[in-house]
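User: Thanks for the earlier help. One more: Chemotaxis protein CheA. Can you show the sequence and predicted structure together?

Assistant: Of course, both are below.
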Amino acid sequence: MSAVPDDIAADFIVEAQEILDRLGEQLVSLEQAPEEADQLNAVFRGFHTLKGGAGFLAIKPMVELCHAAEETLGMARSGQAVLQAHHFDAAQQSLDYLQAMLDAMGSGEAVPHAPATLIAQFDAKSAPPAVKAAPQAAAAKPVAAAHGDDAHAPA
């Protein structure tokens, strides 16, 4: 982030926060009505927009996580995959990790990576994981992820 002016990074954080807030609500709606193409497109666009901004700012952990979500959502949009419960779980958990990444950016800390096990849950052809992904580092552990199904409730 040092090569990017602080005002651009600050603008990204504000915009990304707004997208995350919307994504939380949109994911709940999509999970309740997965056949809604408009909602699927909106969720896809949210992750895509976050990935693009993060790519511009060279925030690799955010790009990787958003890319995994975007790939699965893209396959669902094209009819090549059907979103399963574990995909929605991974998407909700991703919002917590993306929030932790934004918080780290805002405080000037290193942006934490999401666990590989979380990213793997987005594999459109994967079976549900036997055990949910757990944050690997206490510093990167989002609060909502520690509450199991409470992580699905909109903030």
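User: Great, one quick takeaway?

Assistant: Helices lie at 6-32, 37-56, 60-77, 85-106, 116-120.
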